[in-house]
Amino acid sequence: MELSPVRLRKLTGTWQGSSAGKAWSLTKYQIEDHLSRCQAEVLALVEGLEPITSACTQGRMSYNFALEDVLFDCAFAPCVLRDTAGTLVVDFNRFQELIPAPAAQSMYESLPG
To answer: Is the pTM of this model over 0.85?
Structure first.
């Protein structure tokens, strides 16, 4: 099954596309509801190499839509800032802080279709 590029209509906030020749249209709320009801989950795997000891480090995390681990219309607040000397500093107090995301429609305006 092939899906056409997904578009976000500018003013209505509806997702549009087609599958097997049939057109469909979903609102953001319908998508959120579906992901929650079907207990969709995102798995994140991170692997890194510690340069001095060459030790491999791995991390795993599961984010579940039903448990509200995934939030819509949010972004992480900037947590890497420059101090007065111009050095980059990580502010761990803001590391998991969320802020309202910019309007989603601007991210999808450049998609074909």
So the answer is: no
Structure tokens at 68: 């509200």
For 32, the token pair is: 């959120």
Q: What is the DSSP string of 28-82?
A: HHHHHHHHHHTT-EEEEEEEEE-TTT--EEEEEEEEETTTT-S-SSEEEPP-EEE
Q: How confident is the model at residue 5 (pLDDT cuts 50, 70, 90)?
A: very low
Rounded to the nearest 5 degrees, what angle is found at the Cα of 64, between the Cα atoms of 58 and 70?
95
Q: How many helices (H) and strands (E) does the chain have?
A: 2, 9
Q: How far apart are the first and last CA of the chain?
A: 18
Sole residue written with tokens 């795993």: 60
The residue among 38, 44, 43, 42 whose CA lies nearest residue 66 is 38
What are the phi and psi torsion angles at 92 (to 5°)? -70, -15
